[in-house]
Amino acid sequence: MIEGGWEYIWASYAVTVGGLGAAALVAALRLRHWAKRARELGKAKNK
Amino acid sequence: MFSTFANPARFMAFSAWAAPLCAVAALALFAIGLPWGLFSSPADYQQGETVRIMYVHVPAAWWSLAIYAFMGGASFVGLVWRHALADVAARAAAPIGAAFAGLCLITGSLWGAPTWGTWWEWDGRLTSMLVLFVIYLGYLALWGAIEDEEKAARLAAVLCLAGLVNLPIVHYSVEWWSTLHQASSVLRSGGSSIHPEMLGPLMTMAGAYAFLFGALLLTNMRAAIYRRRVEAVRLRSPI
Fold it and tell me: Which secondary-structure segment (H or E) carries B179?
Protein backbone atom coordinates (compact mmCIF):
# COMPACT_ATOMS: atom_id res chain seq x y z
CA MET A 1 0.00 0.00 0.00
CA ILE A 2 1.18 3.51 -0.83
CA GLU A 3 2.07 5.41 2.34
CA GLY A 4 1.37 9.11 2.88
CA GLY A 5 0.70 11.28 -0.13
CA TRP A 6 -1.26 13.92 1.78
CA GLU A 7 0.62 16.75 0.04
CA TYR A 8 -0.80 15.51 -3.28
CA ILE A 9 -4.29 15.16 -1.80
CA TRP A 10 -4.26 18.70 -0.35
CA ALA A 11 -2.92 20.06 -3.63
CA SER A 12 -5.70 18.29 -5.59
CA TYR A 13 -8.45 19.64 -3.33
CA ALA A 14 -6.93 23.15 -3.32
CA VAL A 15 -6.68 23.21 -7.13
CA THR A 16 -10.26 21.94 -7.43
CA VAL A 17 -11.81 24.36 -4.95
CA GLY A 18 -9.72 27.25 -6.32
CA GLY A 19 -10.47 26.41 -9.94
CA LEU A 20 -14.20 25.91 -9.47
CA GLY A 21 -14.42 28.99 -7.24
CA ALA A 22 -12.64 31.09 -9.86
CA ALA A 23 -14.96 29.77 -12.60
CA ALA A 24 -18.00 30.67 -10.48
CA LEU A 25 -16.62 34.14 -9.71
CA VAL A 26 -15.89 34.89 -13.38
CA ALA A 27 -19.40 33.72 -14.41
CA ALA A 28 -21.05 35.86 -11.70
CA LEU A 29 -19.00 38.95 -12.58
CA ARG A 30 -19.73 38.57 -16.30
CA LEU A 31 -23.45 38.26 -15.59
CA ARG A 32 -23.37 41.32 -13.33
CA HIS A 33 -21.50 43.34 -15.96
CA TRP A 34 -23.84 42.54 -18.86
CA ALA A 35 -27.02 42.78 -16.78
CA LYS A 36 -25.95 46.26 -15.64
CA ARG A 37 -25.14 47.35 -19.22
CA ALA A 38 -28.49 46.02 -20.46
CA ARG A 39 -30.35 47.88 -17.69
CA GLU A 40 -28.48 51.13 -18.42
CA LEU A 41 -29.19 50.89 -22.14
CA GLY A 42 -32.84 50.04 -21.44
CA LYS A 43 -33.17 53.12 -19.20
CA ALA A 44 -31.46 55.36 -21.79
CA LYS A 45 -33.76 54.04 -24.50
CA ASN A 46 -36.88 54.76 -22.43
CA LYS A 47 -35.88 58.38 -21.71
CA MET B 1 -39.29 21.53 -23.70
CA PHE B 2 -37.04 22.69 -26.55
CA SER B 3 -39.71 25.06 -27.87
CA THR B 4 -40.51 26.33 -24.36
CA PHE B 5 -36.97 27.63 -23.93
CA ALA B 6 -36.66 28.87 -27.52
CA ASN B 7 -38.15 32.08 -26.13
CA PRO B 8 -35.28 34.01 -24.41
CA ALA B 9 -37.73 35.93 -22.17
CA ARG B 10 -39.18 32.65 -20.87
CA PHE B 11 -35.67 31.27 -20.38
CA MET B 12 -34.63 34.39 -18.43
CA ALA B 13 -37.64 34.01 -16.12
CA PHE B 14 -36.86 30.32 -15.56
CA SER B 15 -33.11 30.78 -15.06
CA ALA B 16 -33.61 33.68 -12.61
CA TRP B 17 -34.66 31.17 -9.95
CA ALA B 18 -33.12 27.95 -11.33
CA ALA B 19 -29.50 29.23 -11.36
CA PRO B 20 -29.41 30.25 -7.66
CA LEU B 21 -31.22 27.04 -6.75
CA CYS B 22 -28.55 24.97 -8.55
CA ALA B 23 -25.81 27.05 -6.88
CA VAL B 24 -27.25 26.39 -3.40
CA ALA B 25 -27.58 22.66 -4.15
CA ALA B 26 -23.97 22.58 -5.43
CA LEU B 27 -22.67 24.38 -2.33
CA ALA B 28 -24.60 22.03 -0.02
CA LEU B 29 -23.27 18.93 -1.80
CA PHE B 30 -19.69 20.27 -1.81
CA ALA B 31 -20.03 21.04 1.92
CA ILE B 32 -20.93 17.37 2.47
CA GLY B 33 -18.76 15.72 -0.20
CA LEU B 34 -15.43 17.51 0.35
CA PRO B 35 -15.00 16.66 4.07
CA TRP B 36 -16.52 13.20 3.48
CA GLY B 37 -13.94 12.45 0.80
CA LEU B 38 -11.07 14.04 2.70
CA PHE B 39 -11.60 12.71 6.23
CA SER B 40 -14.46 10.21 6.61
CA SER B 41 -13.98 7.77 3.73
CA PRO B 42 -11.62 4.80 4.12
CA ALA B 43 -8.14 4.50 2.62
CA ASP B 44 -7.71 2.06 -0.25
CA TYR B 45 -5.86 -1.22 0.32
CA GLN B 46 -3.47 -0.42 -2.58
CA GLN B 47 -3.64 3.34 -3.17
CA GLY B 48 -3.70 4.24 0.52
CA GLU B 49 -4.80 7.80 1.32
CA THR B 50 -4.23 8.99 -2.27
CA VAL B 51 -7.53 7.36 -3.26
CA ARG B 52 -9.14 10.56 -1.87
CA ILE B 53 -8.01 12.38 -5.02
CA MET B 54 -10.58 10.22 -6.86
CA TYR B 55 -13.44 12.24 -5.30
CA VAL B 56 -12.39 15.41 -7.09
CA HIS B 57 -10.78 13.80 -10.16
CA VAL B 58 -13.43 11.31 -11.32
CA PRO B 59 -16.48 13.66 -11.27
CA ALA B 60 -14.41 16.23 -13.21
CA ALA B 61 -13.68 13.53 -15.82
CA TRP B 62 -17.30 12.32 -16.01
CA TRP B 63 -18.75 15.79 -16.35
CA SER B 64 -16.17 17.02 -18.84
CA LEU B 65 -17.31 14.16 -21.11
CA ALA B 66 -21.01 14.70 -20.38
CA ILE B 67 -20.74 18.45 -20.98
CA TYR B 68 -19.14 17.81 -24.36
CA ALA B 69 -21.99 15.42 -25.23
CA PHE B 70 -24.44 18.14 -24.13
CA MET B 71 -22.65 20.63 -26.38
CA GLY B 72 -22.86 18.12 -29.24
CA GLY B 73 -26.64 17.81 -28.71
CA ALA B 74 -27.07 21.59 -28.52
CA SER B 75 -24.92 22.11 -31.61
CA PHE B 76 -26.99 19.56 -33.54
CA VAL B 77 -30.24 21.25 -32.47
CA GLY B 78 -28.78 24.64 -33.40
CA LEU B 79 -27.65 23.46 -36.84
CA VAL B 80 -30.81 21.53 -37.74
CA TRP B 81 -33.64 23.46 -36.09
CA ARG B 82 -31.99 26.88 -35.65
CA HIS B 83 -33.16 26.88 -32.05
CA ALA B 84 -32.69 30.39 -30.65
CA LEU B 85 -30.81 29.29 -27.54
CA ALA B 86 -29.04 26.12 -28.68
CA ASP B 87 -25.86 27.91 -29.80
CA VAL B 88 -25.94 30.07 -26.68
CA ALA B 89 -26.16 26.91 -24.55
CA ALA B 90 -23.31 25.17 -26.39
CA ARG B 91 -21.04 28.20 -26.12
CA ALA B 92 -21.97 28.77 -22.46
CA ALA B 93 -21.14 25.15 -21.60
CA ALA B 94 -17.71 25.14 -23.28
CA PRO B 95 -15.67 27.09 -20.67
CA ILE B 96 -17.20 24.95 -17.90
CA GLY B 97 -16.30 21.74 -19.75
CA ALA B 98 -12.80 23.08 -20.40
CA ALA B 99 -12.39 23.91 -16.68
CA PHE B 100 -13.57 20.42 -15.67
CA ALA B 101 -11.27 18.76 -18.24
CA GLY B 102 -8.35 20.90 -17.03
CA LEU B 103 -9.06 19.99 -13.40
CA CYS B 104 -9.30 16.33 -14.40
CA LEU B 105 -5.85 16.49 -16.03
CA ILE B 106 -4.23 18.36 -13.12
CA THR B 107 -5.74 16.20 -10.35
CA GLY B 108 -4.97 13.07 -12.39
CA SER B 109 -1.37 14.18 -12.61
CA LEU B 110 -1.33 14.82 -8.84
CA TRP B 111 -2.65 11.29 -8.34
CA GLY B 112 -0.22 9.75 -10.86
CA ALA B 113 2.90 11.16 -9.18
CA PRO B 114 2.61 9.17 -5.92
CA THR B 115 0.85 6.07 -7.35
CA TRP B 116 2.44 5.55 -10.78
CA GLY B 117 5.68 7.41 -10.05
CA THR B 118 5.11 9.76 -12.97
CA TRP B 119 3.21 12.99 -13.53
CA TRP B 120 2.33 12.12 -17.11
CA GLU B 121 2.28 9.15 -19.46
CA TRP B 122 1.29 9.23 -23.14
CA ASP B 123 -1.18 6.39 -22.77
CA GLY B 124 -4.62 6.09 -24.37
CA ARG B 125 -6.73 7.54 -21.55
CA LEU B 126 -4.48 10.46 -20.64
CA THR B 127 -3.79 11.42 -24.25
CA SER B 128 -7.45 11.23 -25.35
CA MET B 129 -8.40 13.34 -22.30
CA LEU B 130 -5.77 15.90 -23.27
CA VAL B 131 -7.23 15.88 -26.80
CA LEU B 132 -10.68 16.60 -25.32
CA PHE B 133 -9.23 19.58 -23.41
CA VAL B 134 -7.58 20.88 -26.60
CA ILE B 135 -10.88 20.48 -28.51
CA TYR B 136 -12.62 22.58 -25.84
CA LEU B 137 -9.96 25.29 -26.22
CA GLY B 138 -10.19 25.11 -30.02
CA TYR B 139 -13.98 25.43 -29.86
CA LEU B 140 -13.70 28.53 -27.64
CA ALA B 141 -10.96 30.00 -29.84
CA LEU B 142 -13.14 29.52 -32.94
CA TRP B 143 -16.02 31.41 -31.31
CA GLY B 144 -13.62 34.19 -30.37
CA ALA B 145 -11.97 34.39 -33.79
CA ILE B 146 -15.08 34.98 -35.92
CA GLU B 147 -16.94 38.27 -35.54
CA ASP B 148 -20.15 37.22 -37.34
CA GLU B 149 -21.97 35.31 -34.57
CA GLU B 150 -24.15 33.27 -36.93
CA LYS B 151 -21.14 32.09 -38.93
CA ALA B 152 -19.19 31.42 -35.73
CA ALA B 153 -22.09 29.38 -34.35
CA ARG B 154 -22.30 27.22 -37.50
CA LEU B 155 -18.56 26.57 -37.71
CA ALA B 156 -18.26 25.93 -33.98
CA ALA B 157 -21.21 23.51 -34.16
CA VAL B 158 -19.51 21.55 -36.97
CA LEU B 159 -16.25 21.44 -34.99
CA CYS B 160 -18.14 20.31 -31.90
CA LEU B 161 -19.95 17.52 -33.78
CA ALA B 162 -16.67 16.34 -35.36
CA GLY B 163 -15.07 16.30 -31.90
CA LEU B 164 -17.76 13.94 -30.59
CA VAL B 165 -15.76 11.07 -32.07
CA ASN B 166 -13.27 11.57 -29.21
CA LEU B 167 -15.81 10.73 -26.48
CA PRO B 168 -15.97 6.95 -27.06
CA ILE B 169 -12.19 6.98 -27.50
CA VAL B 170 -11.78 8.52 -24.02
CA HIS B 171 -14.28 6.12 -22.45
CA TYR B 172 -13.09 2.89 -24.11
CA SER B 173 -9.36 3.76 -24.27
CA VAL B 174 -8.73 1.67 -21.15
CA GLU B 175 -10.29 -1.37 -22.86
CA TRP B 176 -8.94 -0.87 -26.38
CA TRP B 177 -5.31 -0.30 -25.41
CA SER B 178 -3.00 -1.48 -22.71
CA THR B 179 -2.88 1.61 -20.53
CA LEU B 180 -1.43 2.65 -17.21
CA HIS B 181 -4.85 4.03 -16.24
CA GLN B 182 -7.11 1.53 -14.47
CA ALA B 183 -10.35 0.32 -16.08
CA SER B 184 -13.73 1.89 -15.20
CA SER B 185 -15.00 0.82 -11.78
CA VAL B 186 -18.38 2.63 -11.70
CA LEU B 187 -19.65 3.21 -15.25
CA ARG B 188 -19.07 -0.32 -16.54
CA SER B 189 -21.12 -3.29 -17.67
CA GLY B 190 -21.89 -5.56 -14.73
CA GLY B 191 -22.35 -2.69 -12.29
CA SER B 192 -20.09 -0.77 -9.97
CA SER B 193 -17.17 -2.60 -8.37
CA ILE B 194 -16.35 0.20 -5.96
CA HIS B 195 -16.93 -0.21 -2.21
CA PRO B 196 -20.15 1.49 -0.97
CA GLU B 197 -18.14 3.52 1.57
CA MET B 198 -16.27 5.09 -1.32
CA LEU B 199 -19.26 5.27 -3.65
CA GLY B 200 -21.12 7.59 -1.23
CA PRO B 201 -18.65 10.53 -1.32
CA LEU B 202 -17.96 9.91 -5.01
CA MET B 203 -21.63 10.21 -5.98
CA THR B 204 -22.10 13.21 -3.65
CA MET B 205 -19.23 14.99 -5.38
CA ALA B 206 -20.61 13.96 -8.80
CA GLY B 207 -23.91 15.57 -7.77
CA ALA B 208 -22.09 18.71 -6.61
CA TYR B 209 -20.30 19.02 -9.96
CA ALA B 210 -23.63 18.46 -11.78
CA PHE B 211 -25.42 21.24 -9.90
CA LEU B 212 -22.40 23.52 -10.30
CA PHE B 213 -22.53 22.88 -14.03
CA GLY B 214 -26.24 23.73 -14.03
CA ALA B 215 -25.65 26.97 -12.11
CA LEU B 216 -22.71 28.07 -14.27
CA LEU B 217 -24.44 27.11 -17.53
CA LEU B 218 -27.55 29.14 -16.69
CA THR B 219 -25.41 32.05 -15.45
CA ASN B 220 -23.28 32.07 -18.61
CA MET B 221 -26.41 31.85 -20.79
CA ARG B 222 -28.04 34.76 -18.96
CA ALA B 223 -24.86 36.85 -19.44
CA ALA B 224 -24.82 35.96 -23.16
CA ILE B 225 -28.46 36.97 -23.60
CA TYR B 226 -27.87 40.30 -21.83
CA ARG B 227 -24.80 40.86 -24.02
CA ARG B 228 -26.84 40.19 -27.17
CA ARG B 229 -29.50 42.64 -25.98
CA VAL B 230 -26.84 45.32 -25.43
CA GLU B 231 -25.33 44.70 -28.86
CA ALA B 232 -28.76 44.73 -30.54
CA VAL B 233 -29.59 48.11 -28.95
CA ARG B 234 -26.19 49.48 -29.99
CA LEU B 235 -26.72 48.33 -33.60
CA ARG B 236 -30.17 49.91 -33.75
CA SER B 237 -29.02 53.25 -32.36
CA PRO B 238 -25.38 53.88 -33.39
CA ILE B 239 -23.72 56.85 -31.71
Answer: none
